[in-house]
Amino acid sequence: MIKVLLFAELEEKAGQREVEISAEEMKISDIRIYLLNKFPQLTVINTAMPAINEEYAEDEVKAKAGDNVAFIPPVSGG
Amino acid sequence: MIKVLLFAELEEKAGQREVEISAEEMKISDIRIYLLNKFPQLTVINTAMPAINEEYAEDEVKAKAGDNVAFIPPVSGG
Amino acid sequence: MAEQKNFLITEEVINIQEVVDKVTDRNAGAINTFIGTVRELTKGKKTLYLKYDAYVPMAEKKLAQIGDEIQIDFPEAKVAITHRIGELGITDIAVVIAVSTPHRADAFTASRYAIERIKEIVPIWKKEHWEDGEEWIGDQLEKKPYPSGKPEKEDLQ
Amino acid sequence: MAEQKNFLITEEVINIQEVVDKVTDRNAGAINTFIGTVRELTKGKKTLYLKYDAYVPMAEKKLAQIGDEIQIDFPEAKVAITHRIGELGITDIAVVIAVSTPHRADAFTASRYAIERIKEIVPIWKKEHWEDGEEWIGDQLEKKPYPSGKPEKEDLQ
Is A23 a domain residue? Predict the structure, then answer.
């Protein structure tokens, strides 16, 4: 199982902060498609940076069961 | 009477912070000479900036009775 | 004690002195602090309050990374950053950065670097609440906008 | 109350928060503070303690002038500077500068300007005390030495 975290606008649009995907491994780009399928209103996910286990990652990287995947919308701290 | 203030190294070399000069008016450059005469060890006064009544002033300016003249060694605050 | 961490996300009010104390050092002659506060007017629009959210463990990790990056350029620098999340009112402190260095020029450079980097790589978001609505604010970099809407690859190692 | 003055020479310990409070503003999103502390080692020599002296009324006047100069470039800036005099130990705070501005770049620029100007025009002097002696320290500008030993005319208006 892969845990996916959604923040800020993504969380609001999806209506939830966490999504669990039953898969042994899955490319980040496929997770995006999976989420867009599940939440058609989540178009802003395409401007978000993916992270795996709290480090930024590229779209081609595969997440494995047990990993935490996060989609990071443009940040605005400070 | 003109009041002259000496600070930091100048005060230490002169052994006093204030000097009073009985004069109706006196050019800053003449005050320097007066002080060097009175305190021959006060050579560092030549690297000090003069001030009259808390504003930097030029050597040619005349101080008048009642004025506070100060000699400001290179500053080192902060 | 959590408050002793040099890189901290907190829901509590930030005490400036506590952040400064973390970088105070016998060999530091200069401490620069950057304090980000909630401003009432942005582009003529009146903010009532803000809400900050964060991906807390990753945000603390990225703040620590900024500290590491600063120490590459300034090995003697000490860095502490605390960012508050939750609801903040006008003039409330959102972030305090403190950097100590032996000489002052480095403290300014490093502190400025830290706030720019926070706005690039640290997963913290703010939602502005106005009288007539609310919105999650995206990338607010004043000087390095990302045309792609994403940080560039070289910023993210 | 003397402590409410934005430009202050004091013999008391400086409270950072108090200086920051003087510049906190509903329209300021950024506060930069520069904190000068007493460093133990300077050029390999070990300082035991420092003594600061000042021509107090002129020093406060010149600090206020620095505030005015900043407002020429940044009319929305608020500035407060407190400098301590008397005997200070290692890590003690000698000066706190706080500048608030609507946008962060200006706060950094103005705060940096203030510390450089203090070292140019404000009549404050420090005497370093080492194990083997003591000395009044002259001009310590890191970037703008005066070959003549004096500030230049254009710095002193």
Answer: yes
